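Collaborator request, handled under Task 6.
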Amino acid sequence: MLLLADRNFAGHELWGLVEATGCHLAWRIKKNLVLPALWVLADGSYLSVMPTPAEGQRLGDARFRGRTPTGLPDGHLVRIIEYTVTVRPHGQPAQVEKFRLATSLLDHRRARTAVGCDLPPAMGD
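C-alpha cells returned to the collaborator:
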C-alpha cells in the first residue's frame, strides 16, 4: 500500500504513525523544509532524515548560528525525489516549478524515478 499526501501533511509524528502501519509513503514536502542529502543515489534522488521536532530545532539553531551539525540527525530515514514541472499556458511563456517528494521507498532500484517524462498538453490547449 502507498499513501500519497500533499505538502501540508509531512511531519515527523504523522510520518511515523503511518509508517508503523506497514504502509509506504510518498508525500510532497514544502520547499522550506531543510532535508540535507546524506547519500546521493544513482537516479539523482537522495537519502535524508526527517528530523524529530527537537532535532529540527537543534538543526535550525545550528544553521542560524552558522555551525555545521555533527552526526546523523534523529528522525525517520527518507528518500527525497526532486523534480520540475513545466507549465506551458497558451500564448504565454513556459513556467517551471520545482517540487520535492519524501518517500519511505528507499531503494532507488526497486522504486525508480522517471527522468524526462513529458505529459501531453491539457485538454482544450
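The cover message to the collaborator said: "The chain has one domain: 2-103. The first helix runs from residue 12 to 19. Please let us know whether this matches your experimental observations."
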